[in-house]
Fold:
Amino acid sequence: MSGRDTPRIEAPLAGCCHCGNVELALETNMRPEELSLRADTCSFCRKHGARTTSDPSGRVVITVHRPEQLLRYRFGLRTADFLVCGHCGIYVAAVIAEGSSSYATVNVNTLDAVDRFTRPLMPVTYEGESAPERSARRKARWTPALIVEEGRQPSEPDSCGSGGAASKAVTSTAPTMVCSGVEHE
Ligand SMILES: [Zn+2]
Structure:
């Protein structure tokens, strides 16, 4: 039952905000049942009821279909961008950039497999950290991340959990309606 001899490669864990503007694909060899589940006690995470996870050995691709509708909220030491969809208001992930590399922690509540995260919720507090300590911790624990901000691609249909086929990182401020077909309910 250990599964030790079986390949541990699972499909990326897909997720998105409520309206589908921001999509996640968390590539990890760990099952959701094995991934850590953290509840940061900072006021931002508490107000959102956020539960986060990361895998330093994995990778997360964050695809933003309408970059002009993405909020990058900063507070406290202002060392990370908390990505909030400006259209539906969902907190999706926090991201730091170090040179050309980015690292993210994702809000488990936005993942399709949310119900499979069964590890005990671990309350965490990072209040006493300095900015360098915080940066070092995040680089060690967060997931290497790729942020894809799409330009206008009218021919591409969008749906949550489609795996993020987009590869263009063209930032555009032009109004776009590429997500007009996304409704989940
Ligand atoms: Zn949204």
Observations:
- The first strand starts at residue 13 and ends at 16.
